[in-house]
Amino acid sequence: INAPELRGPESNKSLILLELVKPGSFVKKGQVMARIDAQSTEDHIDDVKDTVKQADADVVKRKAEQQIEWENLVQTLRQAKSDRDKARLDAKPARILTPLEQQLLDLNVQETEARYSMLEKSLADQKKSFESEIRILEITALRQRRHLERHQHDLARFTVIAPMDG
Fold it and tell me: Rounded distance, CA 70 to CA 61, Å?
């Protein structure tokens, strides 16, 4: 009988043998030959399940938060575009203005155009940032699921079953 080789990251723990078939006795195929104490692993699996649920919930929550932030950014961009368009209309020589007033209006147009352009560029960067953040959270959740799977695989090996009569 070989002891199971554990795949979990905590595989260096000592294993406590709870049950072992009497040495020299015959066993039937499917009979339990050895049973290892799995309580600490089962407890850890429960903790990891909670961590997996939290990681999955974090992805969903952050996506919702990002959607709200995105709408706010888009609204800010719309407002900047509106301000730019208004400044352009105000700067048209529809009325008689002093050179100083005309220069102030032209400067206002330049300022609103620069702000709109800056917001437009930052929107693309923010989208990439959001995508990266979600990807990091998804990878974290995937790592936790794999951690859980390794422990569940180990747990199945804690009961050694006779593969054949002997």
Answer: 14
Rounded to whole angstroms, how far apart are CA atoms 92 and 76? 25
Whole-prediction pTM value?
0.74
Type of residue at 115: R
Q: In this structure, are residues 144 and 51 in contact, taking their beta carbons and an 8 Å threshold?
A: yes
pLDDT of 13 over the 80 cut = no
Backbone phi and psi for residue 20, each to the nearest 5 degrees, phi listed first: -145, 135
For residue range 64-116, list pLDDT tens digits in order: 999 999 999 999 999 999 999 999 988 887 667 788 888 898 999 999 999 99
Q: What is the largest CA-CA distance in the chain?
A: 112
Structure confidence at residue 10 (pLDDT) = 65
